[in-house]
């Protein structure tokens, strides 16, 4: 039995190693493919001529958006009967954002938040439930942002009608999944008893997080505001580069780009994010270099803000 367990652990480690190598290779391939068909001098020119004022505004909004995210997370934690000071959740959110820089997916920092909150509440399932609920409710509002894009531009809608329908449908299913997670508990019986028990407890914790309609409406509202902030950050970056993109395109593209970036097929979305920016924003009339530069500035701004989390983590030690 012991040999079997050790063999299974070694096999999982090997699979994780190969998966990490695949993601790294995918990031390198995508970045290489973009650079191969780009004019590097154009990147330098765009960066050199960018407006510090608009970039500064984008940076400020990024910081405020993290604080807002921590507040809506607190609402879900309170709904479960726990009292955690907002400053501690803000601190945890920044630390999670910092560790995102070293995780294989763009949601890797959520694991750090779960571990942090588990220490504060002494409940792993409750911690996981609040983070999952916060993430999924935010994902649902991505669909609402896309619908705003539809309202802004019918011509754009016609070109991407299938993608819009699929994306909004997935966002709606995500909300239903959160609202009825506890109904799936009977399906967990086939898992090992200890695992099934934890999953059931987490599902019940999710239910307690969102069953209060007042809390649910508030979190959805603040999630929508957060997504508008992400749109605003990208708009300010576009303005900083002296580019023009119809607002309907920004509302449609950014939610879809962020959803794609969450796919665990590259290192923290690196390369995948730049490729999706290039694909979508060239549809709006921008060049590959202009599209990728928007993505790079967004990445650099978020990375810079995440360093706040690095300082907080260092001070903890």
TrEMBL record:
Keywords annotated in UniProt: Cell membrane, Membrane, Transmembrane, Transmembrane helix
Record's protein name: Flippase-like domain-containing protein
TM regions (residue ranges): 20-38, 53-71, 92-115, 135-153, 160-181, 219-237, 249-272, 292-315
Keyword Transferase: no
Lineage: Bacteria, Bacillati, Actinomycetota, Candidatus Aquicultoria, Candidatus Aquicultorales
Gene Ontology terms: cellular component: plasma membrane
Subcellular location: Cell membrane
Pfam families per the UniProt record, alphabetical: LPG_synthase_TM
Superkingdom in the source lineage: Bacteria
Membrane topology, as annotated: Multi-pass membrane protein
């Amino acid at each position: 039995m012991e040999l079997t367990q050790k063999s299974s652990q070694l096999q999982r480690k090997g699979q994780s190693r190969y998966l990490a190598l695949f993601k790294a290779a995918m990031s390198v391939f995508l970045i290489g493919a973009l650079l191969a068909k780009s004019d590097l001098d154009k990147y330098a020119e765009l960066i050199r001529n960018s407006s510090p004022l608009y970039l500064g505004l984008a940076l400020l909004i990024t910081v405020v958006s993290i604080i807002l995210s921590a507040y809506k997370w607190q609402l879900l934690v309170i709904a479960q009967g726990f009292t955690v000071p907002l400053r501690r959740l803000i601190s945890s959110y920044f630390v999670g954002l910092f560790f995102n820089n070293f995780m294989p997916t763009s949601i890797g920092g959520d694991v750090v938040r779960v571990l942090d909150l588990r220490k504060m509440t002494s409940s792993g399932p409750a911690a996981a439930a609040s983070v999952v609920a916060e993430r999924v409710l935010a994902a649902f509002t991505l669909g609402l942002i896309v619908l705003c894009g539809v309202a802004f531009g019918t011509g754009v809608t016609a070109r991407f009608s299938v993608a819009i329908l699929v994306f909004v449908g997935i966002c709606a299913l995500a909300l239903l999944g959160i609202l009825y997670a506890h109904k799936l508990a009977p399906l967990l019986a086939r898992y090992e008893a200890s695992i099934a028990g934890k999953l059931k407890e987490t599902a019940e914790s999710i239910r307690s997080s969102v069953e209060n309609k007042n809390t649910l409406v508030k979190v959805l509202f603040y999630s929508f505001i957060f997504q508008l902030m992400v749109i605003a950050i990208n708009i300010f970056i576009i303005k900083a580069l002296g580019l023009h993109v119809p607002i309907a395109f920004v509302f449609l593209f950014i939610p879809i780009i962020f959803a794609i970036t969450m796919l665990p097929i590259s290192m923290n979305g690196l390369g995948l994010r730049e490729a999706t920016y290039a694909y979508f924003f060239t549809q709006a009339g921008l060049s590959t270099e202009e599209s990728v530069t928007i993505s790079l500035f967004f990445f650099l701004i978020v990375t810079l803000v995440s360093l706040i989390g690095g300082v907080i983590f260092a001070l903890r030690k």
